[in-house]
Amino acid sequence: MIRRLKNPVLHVVSLAISVLIVVPIGFGVLGGFKDNGQLATNPLGLPDPWIPSNYTDILTSGVFWRQLANSTLIALGTTLIVVGTAAMAAYVLARFAFRGRELLFTLFAVGLMFPFAVAILPLFILLRTLGLLDNPLGVILPQAAFGLPVTIVILRSFFRAVPGEIEESATLDGCGRFAFFWRILLPMARPAIATVSVLAIVASWNNFFLPLVVFNDAEWWTLPVGVQQFQGQYATDTARVLAYVVLSMVPALAFYAIAERQLVGGLATGAVKG
Amino acid sequence: MTATAAAPGRVPPSRTLAAHRPRARQRADRVAIVLFLAPALLLFIVLVLAPIALAATVSLFKWNGFVTSDPTLVGLDNFTRLLRDQVFVGDLRRGLTIIALSLVLQLPMALGLAMLLNQPLRGRSLYRLLFFAPYVLSEVTTAVLFRIVFSPEHGLATRTLAVVGLGDLGETWLADPDTVLFWVFVVISWKYFGFHMILYLAGRQNIPRELLEAATTDGANAWQAFRHVTLPLLGPTIRISVFLSVIGAIQLFDMVWVLTGGGPVHASEVMAVTMYRFGFERFEVGYASAMSIVMFLISLVFALLYQRFVMRRDIEGALTVMGGQR
Description:
The complex is a heterodimer of chains A (274) and B (326).
Chain A lengths: L1 H30 L4 H6 L11 H9 L1 H33 L5 H10 L5 H14 L7 H25 L2 H9 L4 H12 L1 H17 L2 H6 L8 H11 L4 H36 L1
Helix pairs in contact in A: 1-13, 4-7, 4-10, 5-7, 7-10, 10-13, 12-13
Chain B lengths: L13 H4 L4 H37 L2 E2 L9 E2 L3 H8 L1 H32 L6 H13 L2 H11 L6 H8 L16 H26 L3 H9 L4 H12 L1 H16 L3 H6 L11 H11 L3 H41 L1
Antiparallel strand pairs in B: 1-2
Helix pairs in contact in B: 2-14, 3-14, 4-8, 4-11, 5-8, 8-11, 9-10, 11-14, 13-14
């Protein structure tokens, strides 16, 4: 009886929240198909007529694709470096006994609570000294460094869980430390690797602060920087800005649709283990 | 963090196997340890620890940030100036406001939704997918979208009020210094409540069904079962979610920068925005570095105290549960 009473309430609440999420996004999608006159007189309704030129102009201009490619390159570069270096470190921190191990792990783990914004100014000075401004490595390397803590924490707990017997029998078969890591541990850890990779990709994809200060040259702008600059440039052309925002959402939402399980699972374990 | 650490110095079983040729093995191990740790350690030291040390140094100088100009040592002047800086002191107050709003509105709402979505409900997984979706959008995208949603004359928000007959309120959203911070908080919640909800759902699913069944058998109603079984057992998850929420508020930048730029008249400005203005626009790099260091110290002190006094109970709690079962 309680359930029958409760279920409509559940549906009403869930639907109300869904509306709050879908309506702003839907407003953006439809707004991109309007012109500014329509947006002013008819912000809520369907476009009349539908005007695809905002979208097609952006898609044929090349700037959007350039930024998409930059975001992709930087996300992949960051992920490759952070997962590679973190996996090696996590292996040592999980399966070797040596003095100072816990201290080292704590050092990395403490990095979990360093806000990125704290380091942005000195990072800028450092990258300028190293000549890495207007260079994708100037974003990739710091992102990888700041991604190390969460990646190491998740991977180490996974590597620890692999039973010692597996390593013993591998050793008996003549497998060295490196071969064990490369041929046995990494393939076994594929789900964990997938999880940390997805987390790294999303973090890199959404990063704005670092590319904002590192890339002066529009050639290197990533999508978040591009969206912000586009908004400044076409401040009065709201419909066009909406189209740009919507197009920049598409890759992120598509990626979410594909990697939803790793993302959600990764955030949950990351938070619990962290 | 410390809970997962095993007793230091425990030797993994595989080491004993190599006992017949210990020296070669040990040397190989030492080489492996160094080689495997080096890349991560190098990255971490050069790009995480060194910048913080650099900021600490620069914060003692007056410097415009240009390579050609010499910094002047001013001791702690930058820090005393911070204490007198009305904008920066206001940043602290606004940061605390956002944290308070999150703790009072956003997190309880996320918790409530997690409890709802834990019930059998048609379309449950679709709702879950949908509620989490804003989290994958970047703060910049979200902020640009909501700038337009909140645009005072023709925006979606104004028009919706008009349609439901509340147009007379004359709400100006982000243009009103009295309400702007609240609307910034609303957009932050729009993006992040799904994330906290997912954490709570994961925590809820770890609670053994038998415990709740036992409570119901003992005559507890739904609220009592939630209050006395679910909520305490969700403790660790809630504490993590509060922690992440506070750290997020301390480093808040993208959303505010794009949504309001900190305005009108600093009414929505936060620490990182003030730091950016001084460091990258007004070229007072020493002063901006002092702000970075204060942000760092706030996060560090908060994290240490939180670990010490709040999260510590999780370890003790786990121990008492184990003791109780025995």
